[in-house]
Amino acid sequence: MTILTPSQRETLLSCADQFGTPTYVYFEETIVRQISTLKEHLSGLPLRLLYAMKANHAVPVMKTMLREGLGIDAVSPAELEYALQLGFPVDRVLFSANNMTDGEMHFATKRGVMLNVGELSRLESFGQAYPGSSVCVRLNGQVGAGHHEHVITAGDKSKFGIPVEQIDAIHDIANRYELTIVGLHQHIGSGIMDTETLWQAISVILDASVSFKDLRFINVGGGLGIPYRPDESSLDMSSFDRLIVEPLKQFIADHPSEDLSIWFEPGRFFTAQSGVLLAHVNTVKEGTVRTFAGTDSGMNHLVRPAMYGSYHHVVNLSNPDGPEKTYDVVGNICESSDFFAKDRAVAELREGDIIGVLDAGAYGMSMTTTYNMRSEPAEVWIESSGDIHLSRPRKSVDEMVADALGSH
C-alpha cells in the first residue's frame, strides 16, 4: 500500500482545490521509480520492456513510457494508432488483440507492427493473407494466476492463447504459409505477487520455445502485482536474480535461436501506485447498522472494488488526524454495488472532506464509464519537479448532454 508523504498530501489537497473533484492525480516520480526498479532487477538480460497501455493511457503517462525507452502492448486498433501518433516506433509495438477480426489484422499489418496471435484460426487467416510474413504467437501454458478469477489469463478455463499441446498445429500452419514465428508470448494473469509462480509459467513457455528455431524474442508477459492492503508486502524483487534472471541467461545461451531477447510487459506494476482518485464527501449518513460516507465519485470511476472485490486504501486527506471511525465509503451511482470500501476504518469523515483512494493509477481511468450520464474524472499530472498540470478536464453537464444528443 502506498504511504503518502505530508508533501504529497498537501499537493493532493491543492489539486482538489484547484481542479475540483472527482479527479485522478498521477505522480511521475512513482512511475519512473517503478520502471527503474524493474530494469535494475532484470539487468544482465537482453531485455525489452513493453508497457501494457490498457492499464492507463493518459498522455503524460504514455509520454513517460516513451521517454524511458519502453515499447507498447496494444490490444485494440485505437490503442495501436494512439501509440503510433504519440511517437512509439512500429518495431516497439506489439498488437495483441483478443479474438482479432480480419479488419483489425489488416489494420495492424498495414501499419507495420508485429501481430501477436492467440488462435489457430487467426494464424491460418494471417498466413492466407500475408504468406511469408513474420508473426508472434501467444501460447497458453496452462499455468494461470492473479488476484481474482476474472484476471487469470491462462489455464484450461482461459480464452487466451493457443494451448501448448497444439504446438504441432502451429508449426503446420507456419510451414504451409511460410510464416516465420519470431516471437512467443504468454500472460498468466494480473496482480501476481509470487515470483515462484511467475517462474513456473515462464518455464512452460521456455520449454515450448525450443522447437522454434527462428525466435527473436520470448515475451513472458506482465501481471506483476503491487501491495494494495496495509498488511501486504511488495513483490520480492530480490529473488528475481536467483529465480528468473540467472536461469534465463543460461536458457538463452543454450537456445537454438540466435540473438534471442526476453520481453516483459507490465502495466499495473508501473502505474498503479502513481495514482490517487480524489473525491469530495457530500453526505455522512448514519444507518441502523452502518455509517455511509457518500462521495461525488463512484464505481463508474473506479470499478475494481465492485467488479473484483478489490481493496483500495481510503484516506481522509483533509482530516488525517481525526479519530478513526468505521464507514462504508460509497459513490453517487444508482447501484448497490457502488462502493470504494465497506466496513472500513478511516479518520473521521465529515461532509466537505476530501478523500484519496490510493493505488488507483492502473485500471482506474482506463475502465471508467459515463454511466448515469456522469462525466469521467479530470486527470492531473504531477511532474517529478513538482509542477502540476491539468492533462484532461472533466466535462460539464452541457458537454455531456451535447455528446449524448450528437447531431440530433
Describe the model:
The protein is an alpha/beta fold and 408 residues long. Helix content is 30%, strand content 23%. It has helices at residues 6-19, 28-41, 59-67, 77-85, 102-110, 120-129, 167-176, 195-209, 240-254, 268-271, 304-308, 397-405; strands at 23-27, 47-52, 71-74, 93-95, 114-117, 134-140, 162-163, 180-185, 217-219, 261-264, 275-286, 291-295, 314-316, 324-330, 339-347, 354-357, 378-382, 388-392. Strands 1, 11, 12, 13, 14, 15, 16, 17 and 18 form a nine-stranded mixed β-sheet that branches. Strands 2-3-4-5-6-8-9-10 form an eight-stranded parallel β-barrel, surrounded by five helices. Helix 5 (102-110) links the parallel strand 4 and strand 5. The N and C termini lie far apart (47 Å). The relative contact order is 0.16. Mean pLDDT is 93; it is low at 144-155.
What is the topology?
Elements (H helix, E strand, L loop, with lengths): L5 H14 L3 E5 H14 L5 E6 L6 H9 L3 E4 L2 H9 L7 E3 L6 H9 L3 E4 L2 H10 L4 E7 L21 E2 L3 H10 L3 E6 L9 H15 L7 E3 L20 H15 L6 E4 L3 H4 L3 E12 L4 E5 L8 H5 L5 E3 L7 E7 L8 E9 L6 E4 L20 E5 L5 E5 L4 H9 L3
Parallel strand pairs: 1-17, 2-3, 2-10, 3-4, 4-5, 5-6, 6-7, 6-8, 8-9, 9-10, 12-14
Antiparallel strand pairs: 1-11, 11-12, 11-16, 13-16, 14-15, 17-18
